Amino acid sequence: MKLNENIRIGDNEVTLKDLLKNREFMVINLNQEQKNTTTTIFKVAFNNVAIKNGDKLSFYSNGIKIGKGISKVRVDLTLWLEQKSTSYVSYHIYKNNQEMTYNLNQNTGAIWSTGNSFSYISVNEGDVIYAYVRFADADNNLNRIAGFYKNSCNLAVQVIE
């Protein structure tokens, strides 16, 4: 679908561009490899603002900081992961230092996997949304987040109210 293409919502026709113009959102990504050689949970080092609409969300310390007047957000996390083929990896969404949700990928032979997670979160001004990863086995060669693939590792926050 193109931004200027008309879509029907009920009895009205609008463009996707019109629907998005008043919607606050931000997507940050990792555009380099991030390795980890331990089984300790670690913060994903997002280092780039991929797209932003509005001024109530900001990039802060590898996360997305919540601005004034926001009470609920949807958070989406996508990671391209490499790990030992007989192990698992968990990926977590945090608000400040509190875990909000997590998911696991159990590998069944392949070393590459995609981690996807989302959550609806109540927030206050100043809260920061982060992503964390934990590999179950320490491995110097395989445990990495493959941010070097364009737009494969993203954290997105969309304001709901």
Supply the CATH class.
Mainly Beta
Mean pLDDT: 85
Radius of gyration equals 17 Å
Number of domains: 1
Question: What sort of overall outline do the alpha carbons produce when their principal axes are compared?
Answer: globular
| Total beta-strand segments | 15
Biggest beta sheet attributes: 7 strands, antiparallel
In percent, how helical is the residue content?
under 10%
Q: Element order, helices and strands?
A: EEHEEEEEEEEEEEEE
How many helices? 1
* N-C termini distance: 26 Å
Low-confidence stretches: none
Instruction: Report the sheet-strand fraction.
Output: over 45%
Question: Which fold name fills CATH's third level, the topology?
Answer: Jelly Rolls
Class derived from helix and strand content = mainly beta
User: Under the CATH scheme, which architecture would be assigned?
Assistant: Sandwich
Structural description of this entry:
With 161 residues, this protein is mainly beta. The chain has one domain: Jelly Rolls (Sandwich). It has 1 helix and 15 strands; from the N terminus they run ββαβββββββββββββ. Strands 3, 4, 6, 9, 12, 14 and 15 form a 7-stranded antiparallel sheet that branches. Strands 5, 7, 8, 10, 11 and 13 form a 6-stranded antiparallel sheet that branches. Strand 1 and strand 2 (12-15) form a beta hairpin. The longest helix has 6 residues, at 16-21. The protein starts with 5 loop residues before the first strand and ends with a strand.
